[in-house]
Amino acid sequence: MIGRNLSPQRMFWEMALAHTPKYRFSGRGAAAFASWKRRALPEVMACLGDFPERVPPRARLLVEWEQDGVRKQRWVLDVAPFIAATLYVNRPAGLKRGERRPAILCWHGHGAFGKDVVMGDDSSPEKRAQILRHRTDYGLQMAKRGFVTFAIDWIGCGDRHDGRKPHHLKTNGSRDWCNLYYLHATLFGMTSLSINVAHGMAATDFVCTLPGVDPTRLGVMGLSGGGTMTLWSTLCDPRFKASEIICYSDLWACFGIRDLNYCGMQVAPGLYKLVDLPDLQGLIAPRPLLVDIATRDSCFLVDSAMPCYERVRAIYRAAGASDCLELDLFEGDHSWGGHKSEAFFRKHLAYAGPSAAEPVDSRMAGRLQGGRSSAGWPFACRWAGRP
Questions:
Q1: pLDDT given for residue 170 in this prediction
Q2: What pTM was estimated for this model as a whole?
Q3: Which of 57, 79, 189, 295 is most buried, with most CB under 10 Å away?
Q4: Three-state secondary structure call for residue 206
C-alpha cells in the first residue's frame, strides 16, 4: 500500500476545502462594499480575456408570423468577425405604433434546441417535452406579459452547433463542444464566456434599434447555463437594469469540483482564485436581481444553493440595496420558477401596461415563496463532506 493520495479529483477537492478566494466578501456597510467592488470587478473582468471585435450587423428578416397572441420574428445578423447568429424576437400583442416597451434578453441553458424552446417553439414532441419538464419557454411567457423578448444561441447550441461530433469523441467521451470551444478560444486569448457575452451584446445593440423597443429599459434572464450567461451579461453590460438568474446559485466547490457539473462555457482562467459564485452574483449589486432556486434541483442542489443566496443577500445588505434582491424559492426540479418574474420586471423596468396572460398560470401552482434564512433551513449543506 502506498498510503498516499493518487486521485486528481481528491487533490482538487482538498484544494477547494483549503481555499478562500481573494475577494470573498466579508465586509459590512456601504463603504466596505464600494471598496470591495472597486478592487474585485476589474480583476474578475480580466479573467474573461479579450472580446471579439464589433461588426456591422447586416441584419436580415427571415420570417415573421403571429402565434399564441405574440408577433414573432426570426432574423439573421453578424455578431462578430467570421460568425453570425439567428435571432428570435417576440413582440407582445397590442403593441401600438410609436409605443416602446421594455425588452428582455432571454438566454437558454444546455440542451439540443437552444433558443427555440426559450422563445416558445414547441414544433416537435421533443421540444414540447423539454418545455413542459423545465418550463423553458420564459421568452414566450414574458412576451405574453407585455415585454419584448429576444434570444440567440450561444456557440455550440441550436443553429450554431457544428452538427458533427468532435473527433475525440470516437475514443474519449470526456470531451464535448463546450470544452473544445473553450480550448479554441483560449488559443486566441479569449474564453467562451467573452465570445458569448459579446454576441449577446451585439444582438442587444440591434434589438435596441427596432421599433417598439425602449433601449433604456432592458432586462436579462436565463435558466441554468442561461443563468451563467445572465450573470456575465449583467456584469459586462450596464444597460441591463434588472436580471433574473434561474437555477444557477451554488458554490464552486460543490457544483463544480464535487459534482462535476460544469463545462468550458462557464469558466475563465483564475476565476475561482478571485471569487466564488456568490461573490459574482453580489457584484451585480446594487442593480435589481431575482434569484430562482428549486428545492429538488438535481443540478444545483438546494443545500448549497441556499448558502449561496444568503451570501448574496449579505452583499446586497452591505450595498444598501436589500430591496433590490428577491428570491423565488419554489418546489420543483431544474426549471423556471416564474412566480415573481412578471412583477419583478414590471417594477424595475418601469412597465405598467397590460398583460395578455394570467399573472400565475396553472403550471406555477403550489410553489413555495419567501426568503427564509439558512438558519433552520431543513437541508444540511454537504459542503463540509467528502466526495
A1: 52
A2: 0.91
A3: 79
A4: helix
